[in-house]
């Protein structure tokens, strides 16, 4: 099975490629590109069996690439890979055979590859895929225990008990521990659903902090509240809707 990976993050392309190669020696990565325009060109020239498409990319996004493939009647199976779960229905309207939400779970990816290996031609939505849409639109999460995080070109596995805070920044979430900082692509709102509410508090739309790591709470002259953690002297803003969390402190 010949595969193209299209994602604007080199680290994520590398990680997905390694996962696929580990799953089966029959999965061959024939190209890895960083934007939608390159993806469309490589698909046209290489005619892969499968393309893993990030939805949000520079130039053409993943949905636009899929639409172009449909118009040109290029027969390749599409798997959308994204950090966001709000495009599932659009993805299947463009003929996706599957839809993966980052961070990619190896068990979930294995199911995808089995579906791909059993597909004899380009797939169209069926009952199984409609079930998947419902799952991605209303995900049910288990409590988060381990995190796969990136630091430079390396992937680390850290326990959630090591985390002091999560801070959303651009496309990434920075994961801060006592002695290091890492990045992940999981949206903060998804992390909030997987973290224990008695252990972690979301004090701002961009910050989740471990309660036991809070060393000080203060207000400025304008009444804005801030917290400081044991990890350093950085003042973290507290939204007004979260002020009530600190009434008993």
From TrEMBL:
Transmembrane segments: none annotated. Residues 147-249 form the HTH LytTR-type domain. This is LytTR family DNA-binding domain-containing protein. Residues 2-117 form the Response regulatory domain. The keyword Cell membrane does not apply. It comes from Enterovibrio qingdaonensis. SMART domains: LytTR, REC. GO terms for molecular function: DNA binding. The keyword Repeat does not apply. Keywords: DNA-binding, Phosphoprotein, Two-component regulatory system. It comes from the Bacteria. The modification 4-aspartylphosphate is found at residue 54. PANTHER family: REGULATOR OF RPOS (PTHR48111), RESPONSE REGULATOR RECEIVER (PTHR48111:SF69). PROSITE patterns: HTH_LYTTR, RESPONSE_REGULATORY. InterPro entries: CheY-like_superfamily (IPR011006), LytTR_DNA-bd_dom (IPR007492), Sig_transdc_resp-reg_receiver (IPR001789), WalR-like (IPR039420).
């Amino acid at each position: 099975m010949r595969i193209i990976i299209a994602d604007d993050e080199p680290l994520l392309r590398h990680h997905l490629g390694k996962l696929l190669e580990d799953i089966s020696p029959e999965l061959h990565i024939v190209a890895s590109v960083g934007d939608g325009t390159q993806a469309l060109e490589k698909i046209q020239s290489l005619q892969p069996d499968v393309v893993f498409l990030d939805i949000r990319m520079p130039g053409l996004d993943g949905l636009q690439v899929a639409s172009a493939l449909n118009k040109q009647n290029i027969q390749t199976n599409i798997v959308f890979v994204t950090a966001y779960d709000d495009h599932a229905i659009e993805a299947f309207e463009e003929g996706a055979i599957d839809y993966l939400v980052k961070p990619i779970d190896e068990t979930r990816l294995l199911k995808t590859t089995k579906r791909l290996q059993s597909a004899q031609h380009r797939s169209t939505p069926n009952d199984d895929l409609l079930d998947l849409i419902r799952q991605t639109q209303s995900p049910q999460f288990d409590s988060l225990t381990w995190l796969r995080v990136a630091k430079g070109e390396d992937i680390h596995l850290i326990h959630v008990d090591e985390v002091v805070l999560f801070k959303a920044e651009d496309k990434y979430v920075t994961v801060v521990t006592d002695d290091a900082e890492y990045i992940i692509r999981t949206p903060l709102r998804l992390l909030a659903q997987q973290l224990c509410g008695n252990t972690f508090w979301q004090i701002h739309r961009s910050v989740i902090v471990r309660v036991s790591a809070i060393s000080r709470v203060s207000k400025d002259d304008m009444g804005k509240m801030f917290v400081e953690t044991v990890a350093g002297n950085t003042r973290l803003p507290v939204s007004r809707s979260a002020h009530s969390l600190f009434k008993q402190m």
